[in-house]
Give the backbone structure.
Amino acid sequence: MHELSLAMSIVELAEEEAERRGVQIDAVHLKLGALSGVVKDALLSCYEMACENTPLRGSRLVVEEVPVVIFCPSCRAQRPLRSIQLFCCPECGTPCSEIVHGKELEVVALEIQECAPNPV
């Protein structure tokens, strides 16, 4: 299950940023494309496991699912696919190979909470 290694990498990245900035992470926002090869529910479950015994314990993974968008050479326009089984323009039916969106696996934001400074 590669979702666990991905979740661990996401947690590690967020931990580093939290430490660097002196903040607590409440949520990690992720864009996940339909063609990324990642199963959303598995990633969410693995994220919880990866957060155990880390400063991110109790944080949320917020996933924005990104549909597949292709570029149609005939229409000269970007079009969302109706099905990932058929890579043809939904308007004119032309077969399309240029994928504009849908492969994303990207951390796009961190919801943070400022940590109280330690009294001197």
